[in-house]
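re: the backbone from monday

yeah here it is again, tokenized this time
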């Protein structure tokens, strides 16, 4: 027990740090499986964070905060969907614009909320299990959103691999022309996928402002939306691998914080760079073998489609 004690806080902190990455990356996995590339995750997370925080502050309910964050994320995603799916705008440029818009909008909406603390979402107490030595602290004391992130992963895995609707969506991502020819509503399916990704991105942002902090801070995502995008590639568009990657990057984030506490003679600025350095290194390693990427990447990822074309 004593030997494990120093490790337990690191493991539990890793789980908390990885949870918003899981929500954002799993949602983006679904979006990209439908053949759409949305680079606006960072902006949707920020808008979700401020909307969720404002709702939780007003109502006193974390649940209301997450619902509001999901709705805000969907609203942002609909802007992206309208421009790229209906108006046929370039997906990369539109996604980047959505991120910039989200950064500015969240700063404007949260101007009067900055620095105001709220009662965050607490861990749930599971009778008997939470009191178990080591395992109780390791597995059974997290907040409900941590457990829901695992349920989300399992549900998305089942949806993509076992359900008829998931197979249709994958068909749209592989060849929208063929999918349209056999009667699948390509644009409608892509709209639903983009909205799902917006909802999960909003919830990821709300997790930062309601659980991790809990407080609204301008720009509090600090690049986590970009890491979530990298995780989709890291996991080769497979939900289970994406989750493993999220825990890996969550661990890197936590270790840089603990390294500062241990008094290591490493500049804090260098330690803060570790998660992003790890992201670049992993992507470089993966991209050395193009077959690794092409194995699971949707063939029509990022390509526009119009039924009348």
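seq for it, each position gets an aa:
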């Amino acid at each position: 027990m004593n030997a494990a004690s120093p490790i337990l806080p690191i493991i539990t902190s890793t789980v908390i740090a990885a949870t918003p990455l899981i929500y954002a990356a799993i949602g983006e996995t679904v979006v990209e499986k439908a053949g759409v590339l949305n680079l606006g995750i960072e902006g949707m997370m920020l808008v979700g964070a401020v909307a969720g925080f404002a709702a939780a502050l007003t109502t006193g309910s974390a649940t209301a905060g997450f619902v509001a964050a999901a709705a805000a994320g969907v609203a942002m995603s609909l802007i992206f969907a309208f421009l790229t799916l209906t108006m046929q705008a370039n997906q990369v440029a539109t996604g980047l614009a959505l991120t910039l818009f989200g950064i500015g909008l969240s700063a404007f909406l949260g101007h009067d909320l900055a620095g105001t603390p709220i009662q965050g979402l607490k861990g749930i107490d599971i009778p008997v299990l939470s009191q178990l030595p080591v395992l109780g602290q390791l597995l059974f004391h997290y907040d409900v959103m941590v457990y829901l992130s695992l349920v989300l992963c399992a549900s998305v895995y089942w949806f993509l691999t076992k359900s008829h609707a998931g197979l249709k969506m994958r068909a749209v991502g592989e060849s929208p022309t063929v999918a349209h020819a056999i009667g699948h509503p390509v644009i409608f399916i892509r709209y639903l996928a983009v909205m799902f990704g917006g909802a999960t991105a909003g919830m990821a942002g709300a997790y930062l402002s309601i659980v991790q902090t809990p407080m609204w801070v301008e720009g509090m995502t600090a690049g986590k939306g970009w890491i979530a995008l990298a995780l989709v590639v890291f996991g080769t568009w497979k939900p289970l691998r994406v989750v493993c990657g999220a825990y890996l990057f969550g661990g890197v984030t936590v270790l840089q914080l603990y390294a500062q506490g241990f008094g290591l003679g490493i500049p804090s600025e260098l330690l803060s760079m570790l998660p992003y350095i790890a992201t670049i290194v992993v992507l470089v390693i993966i991209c050395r073998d193009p077959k690794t990427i092409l194995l699971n990447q949707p063939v029509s990822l990022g390509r526009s489609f119009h039924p009348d074309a």
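The radius of gyration is 20 Å. The CA atoms of residues 116 and 215 lie 6 Å apart.
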